[in-house]
Amino acid sequence: MADQDTCATCATSSSESALDAQATASDTAECCALEAVVSVDERGQLVLPKDLRVRAGIGPGDRLAVVSYRDDAGSICCITLVKAGAVAGAVRSVIGPALGID
Q: pTM of the prediction?
């Protein structure tokens, strides 16, 4: 949601309401889905539902990168969890060639 503040895959804008964005995503692509609504406890922890963890292949000890998106006012509007290995692979594929690393 960088420059245009829009999801490149499903063309949803971060200024849309969550329900509008979900409807738009459902209509245009199956890239995004509202998987669960979770609560944050007093220690700041949350629990990902087991069925989601299983489908995503997330197990005990796995590392997740927390990616935030900001709206036009600079406030964080969206938070995404990405498997840390996927982020590392993406970074390597972009930076590696520039550094001469395969």
A: 0.57
